[in-house]
């Protein structure tokens, strides 16, 4: 098949009110290698607020070529644009891409009441409205946007604590201090509240089945992403296996890329059934609650002292299996 020189095709998808655009690619094979994107490539603009937005100044959601597929992409708002570029003249029929589009409800991306006067992704999650539910990354299950900030303020009732379960958590890991993307959980309603230290100062990287508990009825989550320079490691794939054959190399990159989605799903629950920290400590000096856990405590001795360890007091028998650690 012969293509015109310097071919460019633009595909614009516009969703209705309270909808988003979803793209799913089931075939993707463009000419050239995935490390150069010089012969053919597909640009995705998934953060457009209006159809009239200038693509030259818009944030590029990703450039794809070779066999590295975009897989699933979700628009941040109601508009998504694909731009296909090709400088190839003779193209085998096996080259190209194929996918499906759909318009989906944006309800799942609204975990609570959007805060007025705050642009972007800031929500108030009130226990009086909903006792439990999920918090999805802004464009789940697609890769989340760059240079973006989300905040989630969870407010419970007196006597309640908040449980967070990280069901799906994979954000870019830039090192020990998370210089790129990070999610921080504060044990209170402001950024001056103590930080729940589960991993280090901040949470980043791939975590499996992580759980956190607040001490009281308030909790604040901050999610921040950046836009690193082109030579930064985000978006690049390091593969131990090597091959001089381009198609094999691209396949290895694609297989590695498929596990690099950069997403999160956090399940929250407000409840008064969780262990009461004050009752757990019984006012004893040298006995402290380990922040982020439901009932773990630390006992510190100053010379010869005596401490008592109490089993957690339960308000309901249906709380289920409970495991507490004393250190």
Keywords, please?
327 residues; mainly beta; Jelly Rolls; 5-stranded mixed beta sheet; 2 helices; 36% strand
Question: What's the arrangement of secondary structure elements?
Answer:
Elements: E1 7-14, E2 19-29, E3 40-48, E4 62-64, E5 72-74, E6 79-86, E7 96-105, E8 113-114, E9 121-126, E10 132-136, E11 149-155, E12 161-171, E13 182-186, E14 205-207, E15 210-213, E16 218-224, H1 246-257, E17 263-271, H2 277-281, E18 287-289, E19 297-299
Parallel strand pairs: 9-11
Antiparallel strand pairs: 1-6, 2-5, 2-7, 3-4, 3-6, 8-9, 10-17, 11-16, 12-14, 12-15, 12-17, 13-16, 18-19
Concise synopsis of the structure shown:
The chain is mainly beta.
Describe what you observe in this structure.
The longest helix is centred in the C-terminal third of the chain and has 12 residues, at 246-257. The model is unreliable at 198-202 and 229-260 (pLDDT under 50). A hairpin with a 7-residue loop joins strand 18 (287-289) and strand 19 (297-299). This protein has helices at 246-257, 277-281; strands at 7-14, 19-29, 40-48, 62-64, 72-74, 79-86, 96-105, 113-114, 121-126, 132-136, 149-155, 161-171, 182-186, 205-207, 210-213, 218-224, 263-271, 287-289, 297-299. Helix content is 5%, strand content 36%. The chain is elongated and about 85 Å long. The chain contains two helices and 19 strands. The protein has three domains: 7-105, Spermadhesin, CUB domain (Jelly Rolls, Sandwich); 107-227 and 263-271, Spermadhesin, CUB domain (Jelly Rolls), CATH 2.60.120.290; 273-327, no CATH class. The chain has a five-stranded mixed sheet, with no helix packed on it. Strands 10, 12, 14, 15 and 17 form a five-stranded antiparallel sheet that branches. The chain has a four-stranded antiparallel sheet with strand order 1-6-3-4, with no helix packed on it. It starts with 6 loop residues before the first strand and ends in a 28-residue tail after the last strand. The protein has 327 residues and is mainly beta. Keywords: Disulfide bond. Residues 1-104, 121-243 form the CUB domain. This is CUB domain protein. It comes from Dictyocaulus viviparus. It holds the Pfam family CUB.
């Amino acid at each position: 098949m012969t293509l015109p020189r310097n071919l460019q095709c633009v595909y614009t998808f516009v969703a209705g009110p309270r909808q988003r655009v979803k793209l799913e690619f089931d075939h993707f094979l463009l000419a050239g290698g995935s490390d150069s994107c010089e012969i053919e490539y597909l640009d995705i603009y998934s953060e457009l607020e209006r159809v009239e937005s200038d693509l030259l100044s818009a944030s590029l959601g990703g450039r794809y070529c070779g066999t590295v597929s975009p897989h699933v992409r979700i628009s941040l708002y109601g508009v998504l644009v694909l731009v296909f570029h090709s400088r190839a003249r003779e193209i085998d029929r096996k080259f190209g891409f194929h996918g499906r589009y759909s318009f989906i409800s944006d309800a799942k991306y609204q975990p609570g009441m959007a805060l007025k006067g705050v642009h972007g992704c800031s929500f108030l999650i009130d226990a009086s409205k909903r006792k439990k539910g999920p918090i999805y990354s802004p464009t789940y299950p697609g890769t989340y946007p760059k240079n973006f900030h989300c905040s989630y303020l969870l407010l419970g009732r007196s006597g309640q604590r908040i449980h967070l379960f990280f069901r799906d958590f994979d954000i870019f890991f830039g090192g020990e201090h998370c210089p790129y993307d990070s999610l921080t959980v504060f044990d209170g309603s402001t950024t001056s509240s103590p930080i729940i230290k589960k991993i280090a100062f901040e949470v980043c990287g791939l975590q499996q089945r992580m759980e956190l508990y607040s001490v009281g009825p308030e909790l604040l989550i901050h999610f921040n992403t950046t836009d690193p320079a082109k030579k930064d490691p985000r978006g690049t794939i390091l593969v131990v296996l090597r091959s001089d054959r381009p198609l094999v190399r691209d396949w290895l990159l694609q297989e590695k890329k498929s596990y690099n989605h950069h997403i999160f799903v956090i399940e929250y629950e407000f409840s008064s059934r969780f262990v009461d920290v004050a009752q757990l400590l019984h006012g004893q000096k040298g006995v402290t609650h380990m922040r982020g856990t439901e009932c773990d405590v630390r006992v510190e001795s100053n010379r010869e002292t005596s401490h008592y360890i109490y089993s957690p007091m339960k308000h309901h028998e249906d709380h289920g299996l409970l495991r507490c650690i004393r250190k």
